[in-house]
Each structure stands twice: as structure tokens, then as C-alpha cells.
């Protein structure tokens, strides 16, 4: 069998572990040939690829990023690819394509699959917002980075009697904010799923200071929104999900808290630090299992589906099911987090 693999969309710790696992299972396990497309779907369309053998993936398990490179593909080029899937598969002699990516990549994978390409998807995102899988690799690493940041910020906040506002990634789903906020013991967590009241945050800070705890750390997802009228508000841009994107929430919330409380507040935007560096053991294991199962699915000709974690088992789910809606934080998870502020 000749299997193509590519990584597309934003990078994520664990991508190299999947690539390595695909190559080991396919080449050593089945005697397949594996080719890796460079820079995501662009490499597929431009026929830029290289052969991946066991040597090519040696030593990459613990490396962050992706050795294949990644990119986002414009819609027009994707449609062009969908019109030429037969020609592409024939020319590249592809028996299976394994795209590894988030919601955008899996949507593209679904379109290619519908157009006749033999596709097995592998989900990835630090945001953990892909439905149909309990977890995506990269999330555990990102939560670890954000948790460590909260721990570190507490000591400097306490020394200066400040309020720290830590902005973490998560445009539509607040999983990173929820879990790093809980693990780091943040005193407030703001998620895209529930509008927050600035008054409630001020009250929390004042109560802490009154109790002698002269600092506070608030963990805010980049997609969190203040309740209407709760702080000076500019309309944000509407994204492809119809959600309003309120840019720069960390900076703006810190400024607003400082103004209202008369206490020093500092924003800390973690940004891409959360996506960089070595994956945790959990992410390496999940990524390796996904790679193994993707190759097995290709051999069963189980196309148009993606690997997914359900409980502790890896299963295959239709790509169509995976990309219909994002997995957001349910109410009960927010209630649990609030109980330990
Ligand atoms: O999808 C993962 C993600 O990390 C989001 O949480 C974040 O908003 C986005 O990627 C940032 O993407 P870019 O690398 O294009 O700035």
C-alpha cells in the first residue's frame, strides 16, 4: 500500500508522534510505502512530498511542531483539489491519505473523501474542541503549560499585591481555560461558553483582599465575552461559526479591573507558547495510538472516517459526524470549576 500523510492547520504538540507511528505501523508492520506531503494540503496539490522511512522519523517522538510543516489552505484551492481527486490519487499512486488536523483540516478531509479520495483523518488541536472524540492530543500539553504559568504568576502577583489576568487559547471553546484554571487554582475563570460579569470578578478580588489574600489570578479564554453592559464594549468581528470575536480580552479586562478596583492589574497573554515544545507523555501516547489505528483503518479500507478516543478505546467515527459542531464546555463542568474558586 502507498500511504500519504500530511499535517495541516495550526501546529500542535504530538503531530510528530502521529507521523512516527504511521510510518512504524505502515512500513515495519505492513511493508507499506509512506510519503509525507510538505506544508499540509498545499504539498499535496503542488506534489511536494518526500518518502518517509524509519530513519526519517527517528528521534521525532518528543519534538514539538511538525517535521512535515503545516499551512492553511484557501477554499478555492481545496475546491480545485476536489475536482481532481481521481487524477491526484492516480498520479501519486495513493492508496490512502492520512491528514492530521483540526476542524478546518477535517472539513477539507471530508470534502476530499466525498470527492472520492481514500481518506482516514486524525484529529488534533490543543483546544480539545472536536466533537466525536473525548480528547485531542496537544490539549494535555497546553493545559500543562498554562497551569505552570498560573502557578508562577501567583508568586509574583502575591509579591506585588496584584491582579493577574492570564489569557489562554480557545476561541470558541474554553477547555484550556477551564482545566488550567482548575489545575492552577485560578480565582476566576472566564470562558466563551458563558458571558462573565466584571462586577463578579471585582467582588471576588475585593473579598480576597478583605480576607488578607492580597492577590488574585484570573484565567480567561481568548474567546471569552463580558456580559452586555458589563464593561466598555466594542463590537467584535463575526467569525465563520457566527460567533463574535472580542479581540484582546486579556488586555482589556486587566485595564478594566485596574480602573474599577484601584489595584494594579497585569495581563499575561500566553499565546503560541501553549502550542510549542515537547508533548506530554499523555499526548505522545494518544498520538501514537491514533497513528496506529489510522493505518489499520486504511488497510481495512475504512475510509471517510477519523480516529477518535471514546473512554479508553480508540474507535473510528465518520468525518461527517466530527465536523458538524464544535465540542464546547458544558454547564456542569463550569459549575464544578466555580465551586473551588
Ligand atoms: O486552533 C488552535 C488555536 O491555537 C486557537 O486556540 C487559536 O485561536 C488559534 O489556533 C491561533 O492560530 P494562529 O496560529 O493562526 O494564530
Automatic annotation (TrEMBL):
Residues with site note (Important for substrate specificity): 104
In this chain the Phosphofructokinase domain maps to: 2-297
Q: Which residues bind substrate?
A: 125-127, 162, 169-171, 222, 266, 272-275
InterPro entries for the chain: ATP_PFK (IPR022953), ATP_PFK_prok-type (IPR012003), Phosphofructokinase_CS (IPR015912), Phosphofructokinase_dom (IPR000023), Phosphofructokinase_III (IPR012829), PKF_sf (IPR035966)
Top EC class per UniProt?
transferase
- Active site location: 127
The pathway where this protein functions is: Carbohydrate degradation; glycolysis; D-glyceraldehyde 3-phosphate and glycerone phosphate from D-glucose: step 3/4
Q: Which UniProt keywords apply?
A: ATP-binding, Cytoplasm, Glycolysis, Kinase, Magnesium, Metal-binding, Nucleotide-binding, Transferase
Pfam families reported in the protein's UniProt record: PFK
- Taxonomically, which superkingdom? Bacteria
**Record-annotated residues binding ATP?**
10, 72-73, 102-105
What EC number(s) is this enzyme filed under?
Answer: 2.7.1.11
Its annotated compartments are:
Cytoplasm
Cofactor dependency = Mg(2+)
Which reaction equation describes what this protein catalyses?
A: beta-D-fructose 6-phosphate + ATP = beta-D-fructose 1,6-bisphosphate + ADP + H(+)
Taking the first listed entry, what is the main subcellular location of this protein, grouped into a coarse class? cytoplasm
The answer to keyword Nucleotide-binding applying to this record is yes
Positions with a binding annotation for Mg(2+): 103
Q: Which family does it belong to?
A: Belongs to the phosphofructokinase type A (PFKA) family. Mixed-substrate PFK group III subfamily.
The UniProt subunit note reads as follows: Homodimer or homotetramer.
- Write out the function statement from the record: Catalyzes the phosphorylation of D-fructose 6-phosphate to fructose 1,6-bisphosphate by ATP, the first committing step of glycolysis.
User: What is the name listed in the Swiss-Prot or TrEMBL entry for this protein?
Assistant: ATP-dependent 6-phosphofructokinase
Give the encoding gene's name.
pfkA
Amino acid at each position: 500500500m502507498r500511504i500519504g500523510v500530511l499535517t495541516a492547520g495550526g501546529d500542535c504538540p504530538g503531530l510528530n508522534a502521529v507521523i512516527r507511528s504511521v510510518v512504524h505501523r505502515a512500513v515495519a508492520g505492513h511493508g507499506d510505502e509512506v510519503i509525507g506531503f510538505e506544508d499540509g494540503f498545499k504539498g499535496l496539490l503542488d506534489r511536494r512530498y518526500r518518502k518517509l522511512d524509519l530513519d526519517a522519523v527517528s528521534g521525532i517522538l518528543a519534538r514539538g511542531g511538525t517535521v512535515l510543516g503545516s499551512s492553511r489552505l484557501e477554499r478555492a484551492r481545496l475546491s480545485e483539489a476536489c475536482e481532481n481527486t481521481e487524477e491526484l490519487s492516480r498520479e501519486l499512486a495513493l492508496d490512502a491519505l492520512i491528514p492530521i488536523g483540526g476542524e478546518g483540516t477535517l472539513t477539507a478531509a471530508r470534502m476530499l473523501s466525498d470527492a472520492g479520495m481514500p481518506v482516514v483523518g486524525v484529529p488534533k488541536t490543543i483546544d480539545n474542541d472536536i466533537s466525536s472524540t473525548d480528547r485531542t492530543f496537544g490539549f494535555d500539553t497546553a493545559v500543562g503549560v498554562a497551569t505552570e504559568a498560573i502557578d508562577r504568576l501567583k508568586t509574583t502577583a502575591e509579591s506585588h499585591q496584584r491582579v493577574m489576568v492570564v489569557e489562554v487559547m480557545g476561541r470558541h471553546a474554553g477547555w484550556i481555560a477551564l482545566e488550567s484554571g482548575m489545575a492552577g487554582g485560578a480565582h476566576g475563570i472566564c470562558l466563551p461558553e458563558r458571558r462573565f460579569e466584571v462586577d463578579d470578578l471585582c467582588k471576588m478580588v475585593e473579598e480576597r483582599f478583605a480576607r488578607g489574600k492580597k492577590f488574585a489570578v484570573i484565567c480567561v479564554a481568548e474567546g471569552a465575552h463580558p456580559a452586555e453592559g458589563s464593561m466598555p464594549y466594542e463590537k467584535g468581528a463575526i467569525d465563520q461559526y457566527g460567533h463574535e470575536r472580542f479581540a484582546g480580552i486579556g488586555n482589556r479586562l486587566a485595564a478594566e479591573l485596574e480602573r474599577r478596583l484601584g489595584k494594579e492589574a497585569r495581563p499575561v497573554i500566553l499565546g503560541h507558547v501553549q502550542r510549542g515544545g515537547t508533548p506530554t507523555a499523555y499526548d505522545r501516547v494518544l498520538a501514537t495510538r491514533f497513528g496506529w489505528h489510522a493505518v489499520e483503518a486504511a488497510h481495512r479500507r475504512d475510509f471517510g472516517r477519523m480516529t477518535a478516543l471514546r473512554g479508553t478505546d480508540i474507535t473510528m467515527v465518520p468525518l461527517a459526524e466530527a465536523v458538524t459542531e464544535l465540542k464546547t464546555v458544558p454547564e456542569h463542568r463550569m459549575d464544578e470549576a466555580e465551586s473551588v474558586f
